[in-house]
Amino acid sequence: MAILFNFLFLITTLQAAELPSNSFAVGRYANNKNDSYSKNLNLNKRLTIPDAEALEVTVEGETEEGYDFLIVHDSNKKPVRRLSGSLDETFTVRGSTIFINFSSDNRTTKKGVLVKITSSSLFSEIKTRLIEATKTVLKEGTKNAYVKIGSK
Question: What digits encode the pLDDT tens for the residues 46-66?
Answer without folding.
Answer: 999 998 989 999 999 999 999
